[in-house]
Specification:
alpha/beta, Uracil-DNA Glycosylase, subunit E
């Protein structure tokens, strides 16, 4: 039985991705049929309209000092009805230029992580706890996080995901309302309001500490997310 050109190309992409994962030290790759998230029915309310309302309320935000150095606001992007939302800490230089979250080197790694799970990037939603770039890519200050908190919470409420994945210490700390150690908290289920929250390392941290152990830890965290989604059906 011959494959269509489209299916042959897809098979080549899957094989290439598996080879990359093995090169990265991943020790276990669940079958793709188990990884792929089943379709999620759209909620009755239109989350796209709700997100648009949040963005409109945010406006040309001047609520904290980050507005002084930004090029543009980076609100977030992705599926308005996601099963999973990834939350980082703040835009970097490339994100500030493009207006899109996670498009620099850390974003490329995040995209690979998402695709390795059997998803496309536009199957999920990606945003940050602050919507403007902190100078020099430093961690957001507490007052900056607080200025953006109402909009982040409104985003997450509109999206109503089944699971949130926080990327790095600032994101986990902001969502949990307390300062945490990501090295001790990652991989341990938490909760934001009534939504399960999985803290894991930020892709930028993985790039700085590119070891087999670090990559395996992040992969283990994503496997736990898949297992929880599978239990929900």
């Amino acid at each position: 039985m011959s494959l269509s050109p489209e299916r042959a190309q897809l098979l080549r992409q899957i094989r290439a991705e598996i080879a990359d994962l093995l090169d990265d030290g991943v020790q276990f790759i669940p079958p793709l049929a188990r990884l792929a998230a089943p379709p999620r029915p759209a909620p009755a309310a239109d989350a796209g309209d709700a997100l648009a309302a949040v963005r409109l309320e945010l406006g040309d935000c001047r609520r904290c000092g980050l507005c002084q150095g930004r090029t543009q606001i980076v609100f977030g992007e992705g599926n308005p009805h996601p099963r999973v939302v990834f939350v980082g800490e703040g835009p970097g230089a490339e994100e500030d230029r493009s207006g899109r979250p996670f498009v620099g080197p850390a974003g490329e790694l995040l995209t690979r992580m998402i695709e390795a799970c059997g998803w496309r990037r536009d199957d999920v939603y990606i945003c940050n706890i602050v919507k403007c770039r902190p100078p020099g890519n430093r961690d957001p200050l507490p007052e900056e996080v607080e200025a953006c908190r109402p909009f982040l919470e409104a985003q997450l409420t509109a999206l109503a995901p089944e699971i949130i994945v926080s990327l790095g210490k600032p994101a986990a700390s902001a969502l949990l309302g307390r300062t945490v150690s990501i090295t001790s908290l990652r991989g341990r289920w938490q909760q934001w309001k009534e939504i399960p929250l999985m803290p894991t390392f930020h892709p930028a941290y993985v790039l700085r500490n590119y070891s087999r152990q670090t990559r395996q830890q992040v992969w283990d965290d994503l496997r736990a997310v898949h297992a929880r989604l599978a239990q929900r059906g």
